[in-house]
Amino acid sequence: MANRRSRGAPNGDFSYVSRVVKYTLFLFNMIFWVIALVMVAIGVYARVSKHAETAMACLAVDPAMLLMAVGVLMFLITFCGCVGSLRENICLLQIFCVFLILIFLLQLAAGILGFIFSDKARAKVTELITDAVIHYRDDLDLQNLIDYGQREFGCCGGTAFTDWQHNMYFNCTPENLSRERCSVPYSCCLISKDEAVINTMCGSGLQLQNFLEAAEVIHTNGCIDKLVDWIHSNLFLLGGVALGLAVPQLVGIMLSQILINQIREQIDLQNYNHRHQSDPWR
Q1: From first to last of its 282 residues, what are the pLDDT tens digits of the chain?
Q2: Torsion, Cα of 65, 184, 177, 137 (10° steps)
Q3: CA distances from 108 to 129, 239, 240, 243 (A)
Q4: Residue 116: beta bridge partners?
Q5: Which of 70, 116, 184, 269 is the most buried (most CB within 10 A)?
Q6: Which residues, 6+ apart, have CB-to-CB distance to 181 below 8 Å?
Q7: Neighbours of 128 (CB within 10 A)
Q8: H helices then E strands: how many in the chain?
């Protein structure tokens, strides 16, 4: 009997599933599940609160759509983790673990490819920013995002302030009857911190001026160069953010694998007990 127990027949009352691992994984997923619900709710509210003609415009760069997409994906993954850990369901836990591994590998691959193919990544970013400039007035969320970026980085347009020529409201074509013709958004302007009231028409007509003249009133450098400079000067901060995103994923992968192994061991124990329940030597 001693030999039989040493080969894997422990006491039938023993459970391999740790409650600490089980409920830690459940709470871990519950927190991110609630965050996902909040993200989806904010995205839906931002989307439906727009005008009907705006609702179909520029989907590729709509922050509300991006927020909803990330929220729905996070909701589905964490739902599998919550139910899988609470019900000790190996299938759901494996789905949860596989998705986390895929997301982690995609993030890692994106970082490596972005570093190796930095020129192509820069070209893609330029394309996205140019597209965002074109649709500046089509989406209030996108407009606020561009204005925030131009103010924080002290820049204007993608490569230069003349990029606003691509926008139908700001271009200098004779067909443009907009009051903003040949202008740039006020977020491009050199605004003093002492100014109590912001002149939103400070960028009026500045596309007709050369760089030196315009530089006295607005930021003439594009946001792409400013963004690249900011990345180079904040590599440690970006590394910390990347690590902060990776740690929860790695913790989730580790806990789910531990729980899966414990559930399997518990199933093996139950099967062993079932096969030997009538064994007189047990």
Answers
A1: 333 333 344 444 455 788 899 999 999 999 999 999 999 998 888 777 765 444 444 445 567 788 888 999 999 999 999 999 989 899 999 999 999 999 999 988 888 887 777 777 778 888 888 888 988 888 777 888 899 999 999 999 988 999 999 999 999 988 888 888 999 999 999 887 666 667 778 888 888 888 888 898 999 999 988 888 888 888 788 888 888 888 989 999 999 999 999 998 888 887 777 777 755 555
A2: 10
A3: 24, 12, 14, 11
A4: none
A5: 184
A6: 169, 170, 171, 172
A7: 13
A8: 9, 0
Tokens, residue 212: 């030196």
Q: How far apart are CA 32 and CA 14, in angstroms?
A: 32
Instruction: Report how far apart, in Å, the C-alpha atoms of 34 and of each of 79, 99, 249 are.
Output: 10, 18, 16
